[in-house]
Request: fold
Amino acid sequence: MKCINNETTYQLTTLPGIFPVNVFIIEEANSLTLIDTGIEESAADIIHRIEQFEKKLETIIITHSHSDHIGSLAQLKNSYPDAKVMMSKKEYQMSLAPIDEQQAKYQTTGAPVLPLPVQLDQLVEDGDQIGSLTVIETPGHTPGSISLLDHRTNHLFVGDLFQTHGGHGIAGDIQPLFPLPGKSTWDFEEAINSTEKICTYQATIVATAHGEWLTVPNEELTAMIEVAQHKLAKKRKAI
Reply:
């Protein structure tokens, strides 16, 4: 597992050259927060990294409930039973619905929102504060996807709102070299709107679950938005 660090942010990457999946340890004054849990096979490596800190894991926040974001959740909860698991209210409600009902309601071919393998401790909504992190609702990849802004560093964590591995693209803009995030997206237009929303926060780093983080975020995000809007317009004309 590859680890890179910037201030209080630690990005852990499983399978960096093949199928990169990032999770993030956020170091608080007296505790740790984990954003997403990656794939099932990454549990041991995540635990190893957590154990290098002399602080307890207090919170696990799920940006959205796809298998590469909740894969290690059961193992991590077993290792850290006092850690509180949090997810957006909308994502949780969607995860309780049968897959065919999810797809019929939203008329989507996006990947289903999966039920959590452990009990959820807290529902979160737009504007909620979790330690140093502020919850920002950023639907598109899934209906209940969230992003998280660290007010100390102005680092922003967006889950699968966009990708940088295999090409730079907003969720729904399928990148041929790494198509899964785009293909599993529920609503391309909503993802574009959410990307425009996060640009207003003027983050210094914007980190995605798949690929390297952006260090000149608004410039790079604006370019992605322009490409996505052009592709969306072409799709509409073709209908």
Q: What stands out?
A: Residues 217-238 form the longest helix (22 residues). Residues 98 and 112 are 9 Å apart (CA to CA).
